[in-house]
Write a structure and sequence with these properties.
Elements: E1 2-5, E2 10-13, E3 19-21, E4 37-40, E5 44-47, E6 52-55, H1 69-76, E7 86-88, H2 94-97, E8 101-104, E9 109-112, E10 118-122, H3 123-129, H4 139-142, E11 151-154, E12 158-160, E13 164-168, E14 177-183, E15 186-190, H5 198-202, H6 213-230, E16 233-235, E17 244-246
Length: about 250
């Protein structure tokens, strides 16, 4: 199993739900709006003996040459974006699902960013994301999921191809899910926004931005102990300094 973090950079986010780039060497967090959180945006790619797996899809930003930043990050790690075989979505908030699709300006149509991959998406999460008045989702990025044969809708808990396990937590968001990938005796755990940073695993606290903050706290404590016992490789989507941690 090979795990590569695909950082899209550091950002602050406040009540507006807008992600504003943050230069760690030059910017001052105290000068950002009150209540701003400093986060990394960091999808992961995992290469197993059978698959090239992408965990969440970032913000969906593009480079100066109109290349999807996520594609660019993959290519810089010698991975052809067209070789991705599975895209596992923890949830569909815009900082995790922005790179699901890309709009073709000439054709005026959106297409899945990874056309050769199967996308695993919680069905209820997609339906919830389409409801009006929620700034955490970008509907125009997600609507393509309804019209593609590449999308496999999942619900509850289950397994994929015998070595990927998923669990519906409904903790950070209504239909948030987490994943375990087990390959060649190794276990990678992706808790996404239920377990976004290493420090949160070590300290018990309830976050106001979570759908069920108490449940998030309890799950983090439970996973930390299980991971310590079984030697999990924890993947942290929003950690500035520590994308991975293994006991």
């Amino acid at each position: 199993m090979k795990i590569i973090p695909l950082s899209e950079g550091s950002f602050t986010i406040d009540q507006t739900k807008e992600f504003i780039p943050f230069n760690l060497e030059m910017d001052d967090l105290q000068k950002r709006s009150r209540g701003s959180l400093l986060v990394e945006i960091q999808p992961f790619v995992i290469i197993t003996k059978n698959d090239v797996i992408l965990l969440d899809t970032g913000l969906g930003f593009t480079t100066e040459n109109d290349v999807l930043q996520l594609h660019q990050n993959l290519m810089e790690n010698d991975i052809d974006p067209m070789s991705v075989t599975k895209v596992l979505m923890s949830h569909l908030h815009k900082d995790h699902a922005g790179g699901i699709s890309k709009h073709d300006k000439q054709l005026n149509k959106s297409f899945l960013s990874f056309p050769n991959a199967t996308y695993y998406v919680n069905k209820q999460e997609l339906e919830f994301s389409m409801q009006p008045g929620n700034p955490s989702y970008k509907k125009e990025k997600l609507e393509v999921l309804y019209h593609s044969d590449n999308v496999h809708f999942i619900e509850g808990n289950g397994t994929i191809d015998g070595y990927i396990r998923f669990e519906l937590t409904s903790a950070h968001s209504n239909f948030h899910q987490v994943f375990w990938i087990e390959d060649a005796g190794e276990i990678a755990f992706f808790g996404a926004d239920d377990a976004p940073q290493l420090q949160q695993m070590k300290n018990k606290f309830v976050a106001k931005y979570d759908f069920d903050g108490k449940k998030c706290m309890e799950l983090r404590s439970k996973w930390w102990e299980e991971g310590k016992e079984l030697g999990w490789n924890f993947l942290f989507y929003h950690d500035i300094k520590t994308p991975q941690f293994k006991f």
